[in-house]
């Protein structure tokens, strides 16, 4: 291991951060050109854009014989999204919860965790299980769009004007996808070398360093939403991203190549992932007037810090 490993990880982080945001921006601009509603754009373009780094990293890892980085990236990102990102945002901007419907999204997230645990009992995520995940994420998107349209049927749909011409928007998306590919490639290679050099498992590096790097777009999106006082978007983005991580990222990865999973992921990491999700629900209560206050955010952040400490010392 040499300085090149650290440079690969650093450059990979930067590319994933920049290109994840470029993909969201370019995709939203294209949706405006084609008069796709903000709702549909949010559920598809934005959700996929913020989860794209995890997808590229997981697919790259499984094809370079680093499956623990692939699964650890997703599980670690889901823990970081709630513990690190939502906790940090709540410390800066207490998050108000005004939509009881967010419980439905939380239940879908828990369902994705339960199915993942069930599918991984044999320590392999099979091709057909990946197909089930992909069908479920498609159904989730369709039902979310239908439900929102039903509740806003009497309102007039507003299509924001694009701020970028169509060709630059297409170019931005293409550049973002290429950047995500190379960013994922370099991050996985650098992280694998670091694991060898530090004498720790690829699972530990995947759950900590790689997961943090791929969660940066969610951090940027949640902070931006909180700054605009769109608190439900901030919380909803995190829950939606976690659902996408399990259903779409692991689903697509398993379809491309069955995913071998370390027993420690099932017996330890997934338990931590579920516990922090339950903490989030408790902290959101009551759902109509709940507030994730600064002290709750501090507890979520402390939970994440303790988890990373246990990860490295165990």
From TrEMBL:
<dbReference type="InterPro" id="IPR004837">
    <property type="entry name" value="NaCa_Exmemb"/>
</dbReference>
<dbReference type="GO" id="GO:0005262">
    <property type="term" value="F:calcium channel activity"/>
</dbReference>
<dbReference type="Pfam" id="PF01699">
    <property type="entry name" value="Na_Ca_ex"/>
</dbReference>
<protein>
    <submittedName>
        <fullName>Cation:H+ antiporter</fullName>
    </submittedName>
</protein>
<dbReference type="GO" id="GO:0008273">
    <property type="term" value="F:calcium, potassium:sodium antiporter activity"/>
</dbReference>
<feature type="domain" description="Sodium/calcium exchanger membrane region">
    <location>
        <begin position="169"/>
        <end position="312"/>
    </location>
</feature>
<dbReference type="InterPro" id="IPR004481">
    <property type="entry name" value="K/Na/Ca-exchanger"/>
</dbReference>
<feature type="transmembrane region" description="Helical">
    <location>
        <begin position="239"/>
        <end position="259"/>
    </location>
</feature>
<feature type="transmembrane region" description="Helical">
    <location>
        <begin position="297"/>
        <end position="313"/>
    </location>
</feature>
<feature type="transmembrane region" description="Helical">
    <location>
        <begin position="127"/>
        <end position="146"/>
    </location>
</feature>
<feature type="domain" description="Sodium/calcium exchanger membrane region">
    <location>
        <begin position="5"/>
        <end position="146"/>
    </location>
</feature>
<feature type="transmembrane region" description="Helical">
    <location>
        <begin position="166"/>
        <end position="184"/>
    </location>
</feature>
<feature type="transmembrane region" description="Helical">
    <location>
        <begin position="79"/>
        <end position="96"/>
    </location>
</feature>
<feature type="transmembrane region" description="Helical">
    <location>
        <begin position="265"/>
        <end position="285"/>
    </location>
</feature>
<dbReference type="InterPro" id="IPR044880">
    <property type="entry name" value="NCX_ion-bd_dom_sf"/>
</dbReference>
<keyword id="KW-0472">Membrane</keyword>
<feature type="transmembrane region" description="Helical">
    <location>
        <begin position="103"/>
        <end position="121"/>
    </location>
</feature>
<keyword id="KW-0812">Transmembrane</keyword>
<feature type="transmembrane region" description="Helical">
    <location>
        <begin position="204"/>
        <end position="227"/>
    </location>
</feature>
<feature type="transmembrane region" description="Helical">
    <location>
        <begin position="6"/>
        <end position="24"/>
    </location>
</feature>
<keyword id="KW-1133">Transmembrane helix</keyword>
<dbReference type="GO" id="GO:0006874">
    <property type="term" value="P:intracellular calcium ion homeostasis"/>
</dbReference>
<dbReference type="GO" id="GO:0005886">
    <property type="term" value="C:plasma membrane"/>
</dbReference>
<feature type="transmembrane region" description="Helical">
    <location>
        <begin position="36"/>
        <end position="59"/>
    </location>
</feature>
């Amino acid at each position: 291991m040499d300085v090149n490993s650290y440079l690969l990880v650093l450059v990979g982080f930067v590319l994933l951060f920049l290109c994840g945001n470029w993909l969201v921006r370019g995709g939203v601009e294209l949706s405006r050109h084609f008069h796709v509603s903000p709702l549909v754009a949010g559920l598809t373009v934005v959700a996929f854009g913020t989860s794209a780094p995890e997808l590229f990293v997981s697919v790259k890892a499984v094809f370079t014989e680093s499956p623990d980085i692939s699964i650890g990236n997703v599980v670690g990102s889901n823990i970081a999204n709630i513990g690190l990102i939502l906790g940090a945002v709540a410390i800066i901007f207490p998050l108000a919860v005004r939509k009881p419907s967010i419980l439905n999204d939380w239940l879908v997230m828990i369902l994705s965790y339960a199915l993942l645990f069930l599918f991984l009992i044999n320590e392999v995520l099979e091709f057909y299980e990946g197909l089930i995940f992909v069908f479920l994420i498609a159904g989730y998107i369709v039902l979310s769009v239908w439900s929102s349209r039903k509740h806003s049927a009497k309102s007039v749909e507003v299509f924001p004007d694009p701020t970028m011409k169509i060709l630059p928007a297409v170019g931005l998306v293409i550049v973002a996808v290429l950047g995500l590919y190379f960013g994922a490639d370099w991050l996985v290679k650098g992280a694998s070398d670091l694991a060898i050099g530090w004498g720790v498992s690829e699972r530990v590096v995947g759950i900590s360093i790689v997961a943090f790097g791929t969660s940066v777009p969610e951090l940027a999106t949640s902070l931006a939403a909180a700054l605009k006082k769109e608190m439900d978007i901030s919380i909803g983005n995190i829950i939606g991203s976690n659902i996408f991580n399990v259903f779409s990222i692991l689903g697509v990865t398993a379809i491309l190549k069955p995913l071998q999973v370390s027993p420690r992921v099932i017996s330890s990491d997934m338990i931590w992932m579920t516990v922090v999700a339950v903490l989030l629900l408790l902290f959101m209560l009551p759902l109509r007037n709940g507030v994730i206050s600064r002290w709750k955010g501090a507890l979520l952040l402390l939970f994440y810090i303790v988890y990373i400490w246990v990860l490295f010392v165990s």
